[in-house]
C-alpha cells in the first residue's frame, strides 16, 4: 500500500482537480448529503472507517476548495489470525455531489482507487452496487456476480467485481 498521497489531474481544459487520500471524517458529510440525507449523520459511519490498516479514503477536490466533491473508500478484509488480506479489495460509499455528477469526476476518483488497490497487491476489486449504478460500473469494467443480488433498507444491490492485473513498468 505505497501509493503516493497526492495526484493532480485535469478533467478538462478549465478545471484543476486534485485527488487526495483524506481522513474518514472528511468523507462523512458528502456521504450523508448524497447517499442518506434523510438519516442521521452517524448512519453513514461504517465499521472500519477509522481503521487505517483496513481502509483508505479518497476525495476529489476542485481548485483550492477544502470540501471534496466526490469521495470513495477502499477496504480490505481483516482475516481472523492472518492479518489484513490485501489481495481482495472492496470499494464502498462512492458518491459525487449532485450538482457535480456526470462530469467525469467519479470516474477519475475511481481510477485513482483502482491504481492504489493494484499497487497494494489487490488481485480483484468488488463492490455492492446500487442497481441503478450497475450500468455505469459495467462500463468501468466490473461484472455482476450471478445470484448475489440483495436488498437493504429498501435499496436493491448487486455484487460486482473486476480482476486487477499487475501494473506494467510504464504505469508504476
Ligand atoms: C455513481 C456516482 C458516484 C458517479 O459519480 P460521477 O461523478 O457522476 O461519475 P462520472 O461523471 O465519472 O460518470 C457518471 C456518468 O456520467 C457520464 N459522464 C461523465 N462525464 C460526462 C460529461 N462530461 N458529460 C455527460 N456525462 C458524463 C459517464 O459516462 C457516466 O454515465 P452513465 O451513468 O450513463 O454510465 C454518482 O452518480 C453518485 O454519487 N450517485 C449517487 C450515489 C450512488 O448511487 N453511489 C453509488 C453507490 S453503489
Automatic annotation (TrEMBL):
<dbReference type="InterPro" id="IPR016181">
    <property type="entry name" value="Acyl_CoA_acyltransferase"/>
</dbReference>
<dbReference type="GO" id="GO:0016747">
    <property type="term" value="F:acyltransferase activity, transferring groups other than amino-acyl groups"/>
</dbReference>
<feature type="domain" description="N-acetyltransferase">
    <location>
        <begin position="17"/>
        <end position="165"/>
    </location>
</feature>
<protein>
    <recommendedName>
        <fullName>N-acetyltransferase domain-containing protein</fullName>
    </recommendedName>
</protein>
<dbReference type="Pfam" id="PF00583">
    <property type="entry name" value="Acetyltransf_1"/>
</dbReference>
<dbReference type="InterPro" id="IPR000182">
    <property type="entry name" value="GNAT_dom"/>
</dbReference>
Amino acid at each position: 500500500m505505497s501509493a503516493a498521497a497526492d495526484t493532480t489531474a485535469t478533467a478538462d481544459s478549465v478545471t484543476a482537480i486534485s485527488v487526495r487520500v483524506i481522513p474518514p471524517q472528511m468523507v462523512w458529510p458528502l456521504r450523508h448529503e448524497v447517499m442518506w440525507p434523510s438519516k442521521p449523520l452517524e448512519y453513514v459511519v461504517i465499521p472500519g472507517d477509522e481503521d487505517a490498516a483496513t481502509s483508505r479514503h479518497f476525495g476529489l477536490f476542485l481548485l483550492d476548495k477544502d470540501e471534496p466533491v466526490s469521495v470513495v473508500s477502499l477496504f480490505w478484509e481483516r482475516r481472523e489470525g492472518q492479518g489484513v488480506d490485501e489481495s481482495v479489495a472492496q470499494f464502498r460509499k462512492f458518491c459525487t455531489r449532485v450538482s457535480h455528477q456526470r462530469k467525469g469526476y467519479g470516474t477519475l476518483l475511481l481510477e485513482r482507487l483502482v491504481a492504489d488497490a493494484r499497487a497494494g497487491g489487490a488481485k480483484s476489486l468488488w463492490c455492492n452496487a446500487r442497481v441503478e449504478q450497475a450500468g455505469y460500473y459495467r462500463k468501468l469494467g466490473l461484472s455482476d456476480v450471478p445470484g448475489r443480488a440483495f436488498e437493504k433498507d429498501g435499496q436493491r444491490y448487486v455484487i460486482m467485481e473486476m480482476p486487477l492485473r499487475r501494473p506494467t513498468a510504464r504505469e508504476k
